[in-house]
Amino acid sequence: PGKEVVYLNYAAVDPAMTNEKCDYWHFRLDADTSMKMEALTSFMKEQPKVKSVYLLNQNYSHGQQVAKYFKDAIQRKRPDVKIAGEDLHPIGQVKDFAPYVAKIKQSGADTVLTGNWGQDLTLLVKAMNDAGLKIPMYTYYAGVTGTPTALAAGGDSEVYVVAYGHANHTGELGQMAADFKKKFNDDYYTYATYNGIQLLGAAMAKAKSTNPVQVAKAMEGLSIKSFAGDVTMRASDHQLQQSMFVTKWQKAKKGEYSVEKTGYTFVPIKQMDPYVASTPTSCQMKRPS
Question: Is the pTM value of this prediction over 0.90?
Answer without folding.
Answer: yes
